[in-house]
Amino acid sequence: MSYLIELRHFKYFLAVAEELHYRKAAEKLNISQPGLSRQIKQMEEILEVDLFVRSKRKVTLTAAGEYLKGEVEFILNHLEVTKKQLKYVSQGDFGEVRIGFLGSAMQELIPKLLINLKDKFPGIRTSLEEVSNNAQINALLKDRLDMGFVRLSRVPDGFNIKPVYEDTFSVVLPEQYPLSSQNFKDVSQLSKENFILFSQDYSPLYYDTIMSICEDAGFTPKVSHKSVHAHTIFKLVENNLGVAIVPTSLQYGFQMKVKFIELKNIPQKAVLSMVWKEDNRNPALRHCVNLLLDEASNAN
Amino acid sequence: MSYLIELRHFKYFLAVAEELHYRKAAEKLNISQPGLSRQIKQMEEILEVDLFVRSKRKVTLTAAGEYLKGEVEFILNHLEVTKKQLKYVSQGDFGEVRIGFLGSAMQELIPKLLINLKDKFPGIRTSLEEVSNNAQINALLKDRLDMGFVRLSRVPDGFNIKPVYEDTFSVVLPEQYPLSSQNFKDVSQLSKENFILFSQDYSPLYYDTIMSICEDAGFTPKVSHKSVHAHTIFKLVENNLGVAIVPTSLQYGFQMKVKFIELKNIPQKAVLSMVWKEDNRNPALRHCVNLLLDEASNAN
DNA sequence: GGTAATTAATAACTATGAGTTATCTAATAG
DNA sequence: CTATTAGATAACTCATAGTTATTAATTACC
């Protein structure tokens, strides 16, 4: 009997936890089914914990197995990252920062950050991925991202969050709509319109904020469509299917037959925040975070 | 040649990185020096990175090695934590204990309990709520709390009660009051004063105890005010509206212009007891209770 | 209800590679 | 210039991961 857990065990465990099927998992791992069975069993013996329930013909995770699955995902992933970073370090580079972002952060903030980063730390590589708010938090948890840009007011324990960009909101109207910055007074003029918004799941904060803007103007908006893509929202507005309220910076980067009217005189702002995990060990991340913090403080 | 890194490699690597001496590291690991040498070398081959510089007779870490050391420390540690947590999860030790308490328990006992709990059962979450004696009993009955800290002598059937903290009483006087620990003899010196007490509903035991203290001193106190908050009581004393007798530990945690004189020589003590329902099924509660019982018995 | 198919576990075997002992080379200390 | 101490090399062994073959048990299907 072996006395120690090895990474092999974790890899095997993860395969079974994902497939919930020994033969298929074994196939995926390119080993035989009995070998896999024995390794998993051994693992349970070493850890002194049941990980799977093999009742009848079904394999299911126990509570402990469920927990371990999450941890193993994290550990194996962290290991991959470490290996990669190790190469960079050995070459005298700083490594890679994996950044997640909402589409609306791409208009201005991210490009600026990247240019700055390239300038000050040419050794730091970046990878960029457009991900929703919640998916970013998840990815950060599992160490699949180092840093995110989200529109959230609160984040789980262990996370740092820092507002980095404040934007006004703008009303988005079809081009031929009989309102313009000249005769526009406030949002209440749109109280009879259908609203097209980013879906609540995608960004609860955004959703609540829009609601509060309308409430302040004395009405509850009829929401006819929800989407997760600015492009879709604009397309719907273009086709007279409703009006929208979005962060102003989204007006750049799209070619649509819609017009923007900036809501300069309302207190609500679209706040984009940088999030990262407190205990992230990526040395390149520190530089990246500091760069943005410096910038934010200089801007004031 | 092996193709994959295993945890063994990490453990070996860490030993060498710490000792910077193969033979000593091998000894520590209870393996032979050549075996260790080969594993480290293999590790370098797999990772395709030099981790040590073996110049002459000295072993030193490369930059990459230095980086990896930090990561390996993190990973191995994370692993230990995970293994521990896993046991807890499998035993159902994850979960929440809802604790009710009197304000006066917060000064010392509760913080200590929480620290201990966090240490021994990091998976157990706690929720804390300041509730009066009777409300705690009610909440326990309704299963809105798992555990309470009360000053009561008796509890209904089906409840367990266990004294966990014994405190002396102290007289609370306005700062400029013409009595101090020097010239204070006993409570009878206060027989003409108005008394400010915790209300009878809030804690019958407390109320009766104060009465018995005064009776023992040969007088029946005039009670001018009753309150459920220590803060209020102290505020009233501060403003010369009367004197009070409270558990001594309440003197910490408030900033007031009042002075405490401890009643060391009377038999009455302020007893804080832990209460919980006999048939509570919360497995996390068991741990919590045992922790406190152990502690109480160790203290004796 | 009985046969076929599919599951994971068990048993017996094999072969890879971790770890062993013995030895070598090289550097410093005294 | 030996004696000592370092890590690397070489040859061996042995534990065990992973193999094939089989069993046991459940479900699916006619």
TrEMBL record, chains A, B:
Q: Which domain of life is it from?
A: Bacteria
Per the record, its GO cellular-component terms are:
protein-DNA complex
Q: Which InterPro entries match?
A: LysR_HTH_N (IPR000847), LysR_subst-bd (IPR005119), WH-like_DNA-bd_sf (IPR036388), WH_DNA-bd_sf (IPR036390)
Keyword Zinc-finger recorded: no
Q: Per its record, what are the GO molecular function terms?
A: DNA binding; DNA-binding transcription factor activity
Query: Glycosyltransferase as a keyword?
Result: no
User: Any idea where the HTH lysR-type domain is?
Assistant: 5-62
Question: What keywords is this UniProt entry annotated with?
Answer: DNA-binding, Transcription, Transcription regulation
Pfam family name, one: LysR_substrate
Question: What family classification does the UniProt entry report for this protein?
Answer: Belongs to the LysR transcriptional regulatory family.
Name of the protein described by the UniProt record: LysR family transcriptional regulator
